[in-house]
């Protein structure tokens, strides 16, 4: 079970942020003070969110003990909650707002499991591939994704991107799409989107009962919009099979 880490020094803060960046993790920070009553009220909720979201790094910073950190982020009210990724502020909530804090985690918690940053050349190829995909130039997108995968062969996200591009291409290539989706779920077995891609490829090959199982797995592993997408695809697959 994950629990929030109380930061004891600037060195520990910097090392923790670097570690989270390398792992592709979002960091949720609770800036609090020992004299702050609302901070004490919201603290158990912050701890519960930490236990429920192990893919997010939860930190606590005492603004009086760690004034340099609080000053850097211009913290002036307690509690203040920040969502950070790669050192950049993604969002903020001030006050003992349990619902706002939950939304902050949901909106900025990132994928589960976290996705480490790609090597620079692979990221560049992925961005180019995404641009071609949006323009419906699927052959060119596949070429760019392939170049990225050669540099980062265990990236489930890249494999998932190429899988759907294979299905969208003319003519579609469901066998290649299936191979990519299967590898994506092997390298990241807890990534729900990989099972969506697997289900889509299985459907294209008319292996609908297997597709249903893939979409069910995607729902189990996903949350938010990704889970909603998986549920819609499951409903469509069951309808095709005549299941209720």
* Widest β-sheet, arrangement of strands: 1-3-2-4-5
Instruction: Please describe the biggest sheet, giving its number of strands, its sense, and whether it closes into a barrel.
Output: 5 strands, mixed
Amount of beta strand: 5-15%
Uncertain segments: none
Instruction: Return the structural class.
Output: alpha/beta
Return the string of H and E elements. Answer: EHEHEHEEHHHHHHHH
Distance between the termini: 37 Å
What average pLDDT do the residues reach?
94
Question: What is the total tally of β strands?
Answer: 5
Spatial extent as radius of gyration: 21 Å
Distinctive features:
about 240 residues; alpha/beta; five-stranded mixed β-sheet; 11 helices; elongated
Description:
With about 240 residues, this protein is an alpha/beta fold. Helix content is about 60%, strand content about 10%. It contains eleven helices and five strands, in the order βαβαβαββαααααααα. α2 (about 35-50) packs parallel to α4 (about 100-110), α9 packs antiparallel against α10 (about 210-220) and α9 runs parallel beside α11 (about 225-240). The mean pLDDT is about 95.
């Amino acid at each position: 079970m994950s629990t929030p880490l109380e930061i004891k020094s600037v060195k520990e803060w910097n090392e923790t942020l670097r570690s989270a960046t390398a792992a592709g993790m979002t960091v949720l920070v609770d800036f609090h003070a020992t004299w702050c009553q609302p901070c004490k009220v919201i603290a158990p909720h912050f701890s519960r969110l930490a236990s429920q979201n192990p893919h997010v790094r939860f930190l606590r910073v005492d603004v009086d003990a760690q004034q340099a950190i609080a000053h850097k982020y211009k913290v002036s009210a307690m509690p203040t909650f920040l969502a950070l990724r790669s050192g950049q502020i993604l969002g903020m909530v001030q006050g003992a707002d349990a619902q706002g804090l939950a939304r902050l985690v949901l909106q900025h918690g990132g994928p589960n499991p976290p996705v480490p940053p790609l090597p620079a050349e692979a990221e560049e190829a992925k961005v180019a591939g995404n641009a071609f995909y949006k323009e419906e130039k699927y052959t060119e997108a596949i070429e760019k994704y392939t170049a990225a995968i050669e540099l980062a062969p265990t990236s489930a996200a890249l494999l998932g991107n190429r899988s759907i591009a294979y299905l969208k291409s003319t003519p579609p290539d469901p066998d290649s799409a299936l191979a990519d989706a299967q590898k994506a779920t092997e390298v990241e077995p807890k990534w729900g989107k990989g099972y969506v891609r697997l289900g889509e490829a299985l459907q294209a090959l008319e292996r609908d009962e297997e597709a249903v199982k893939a979409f069910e797995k995607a729902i189990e592993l996903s949350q938010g919009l990704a889970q909603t997408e998986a549920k819609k695809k499951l409903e469509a697959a069951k309808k095709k099979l005549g299941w209720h």
